[in-house]
Amino acid sequence: MPSLIAQTARIPRLSRFAWLMGLYAENHARLSRLFAPAGLAPGGYRSVVGDGLDLQLDVLEQHRYTTELRLTYALRDPLTGEPDPSAYLRLYHDARQLEATHCYVGRRWQDVIGMYPPPARVVGHRLRMNTFLGKWLEYLAERGHGVATLRPVDGGTASGDGTKDLAASA
InterPro entries under this entry (predicted)? Predict the structure, then answer.
């Protein structure tokens, strides 16, 4: 019996942080397969597949090692006028990671976890956001969104000014 206990004690456990890093890697692969955003010029892009939910992909900034993006439907929250749902993403090219830095689904992160949350709450919030992102990217792929359906939008981002949107949501 003691040898049985010793064997089970050697099984490594995955921490929440390690799980989060795994989500970042999976989401990087999903987004890269869908839209190849590292090669897109800054500006707005729309993907239309005929289901009535046009997808908006805004490339806010392109840097050597990162790309800043916003992914949303062409829908607006009736109360705020903001695109909703909306996910702000940071794509790390060298590390092959995609992080949802914040999501706007009716509320800001400060309203969800408070101004000075403990680290465990921050990791939990990031796990939820990036799990949502992974499921959303899978759904988009199933609906037929991808590089072939992506077209540049005249006038830039969904609201016309990505810098304003990013500053307002931070």
Answer: DUF1249 (IPR009659)
8 A C-beta contact, residue 140 and residue 153: no
User: Distance (Å, rounded) from C-alpha 104 to C-alpha 86?
Assistant: 5
Q: What is the pTM of this model?
A: 0.77
- Asked if residue 136 is part of any domain, the answer here is yes
Residue 29 forms part of a structural domain? yes
pLDDT tens digit string along 92-120? 999 999 999 887 655 565 666 667 778 88
Instruction: Please count the CA atoms within 13 angstroms of the CA of 45 that sit on its side-chain side.
Output: 22
Q: In what order do the strands lie in the sheet with 43-47?
A: 97-104, 86-92, 66-73, 55-62, 43-47, 150-152
Is 8 domain-assigned? no
